[in-house]
Predict the structure.
Amino acid sequence: MSPTVRPISRAEHLAFVEARPSASHMQVPSWGDVKADWEAESLGWFEPDGRLSGVGLVLLRPLPKVRRYLAYLPEGPVIDWAAPDLERRLEPMVAYLKGRGAFSVKMGPPVVARRWSPEAVKAAIADPAAHRLADVPPTSYEQGAVDLAARLRRMGWRRSEAGGEEGFAAGQPRYVCQVPFAGRSLDDVQRGLNQQWRRNVRKAEKAGVKVVRGGHDDLPVFYDLYTETAERDRFIPRPLPYFQRMWTALTAEHPDRMRLYLAHHEGEVLAAATMLVVGGHVWYSYGASTSRRREVQPNNAMQWRMMCDAHELGAHVYDFRGITDTLEESNHLLGLLRFKVGAGGEAVEYVGEWDLPLNRLLHKALDVYMTRR
């Protein structure tokens, strides 16, 4: 028999997540409070014996002028993706969401497909024949991800096109950079930093850079640096209330769910970053810095402090989040890839996000809307 999918309480949802080694920060109940322009609902998968075997945070957003919804489960749901009866786990979810008025379902299975070691990425960047990570043989390869993709296609799902997270373009990065911590001492992690990273951390320490933890009242300081970063790196910044809402919602659920770090030098904050924690998975979430006094290396000092704190928390991975899969020198994001890999990070490819159109006409209208906006 297939599991039954139905709404559950926030307490049930959180208890299930906390009993696992980890889950995405986008699959905890409080994330629904962060995404205030979506309607959030916690779903539970119940086996015939009544046991809760999976949960999911679904975000619902109506198509303009039509009370039909895009249903989105970012980096979820939290189910056994290797289960031989996966079809019987997804079908009741789709049926429930269709009954809720969903015209399309988007989800992001948290399943790794390929990994590239820091050495492999460094060699690929130096190889003129390598234009994308996909051109480079991976250090490790997960057959289960290939099998999962094939099963999803047979069920009618299709891989999403890459997109941003604003509005309906609810896309999460397919390629990320992660520093593995499991089974490694902090000395091991430090030895994984490349020579430039170690030099910069020492330089920051010698220059007197101090990294401290901040709180809600320090978010405006972070935000000033963040808007400067947005202008410099050519992206549209989120508004300050978004970060204030994030802090309030996440820390209410768990005091360490979100942290803020500030790098000070001679009375001025030169860099700031947010960190998210769910179980053994720690994410570097948002970063910001000024162009002033970059020679004292505040970003290296701040990231190393965050990595040390993550290790102290018992993290099994420190996640730098999204990276470009383009290896071209002309890509302005290549420097960020070098920075993250220099910290000992592996390049990691997930199986990606997948769409299931339930009403093809409305799903097509969504595509047209996104193309024009």
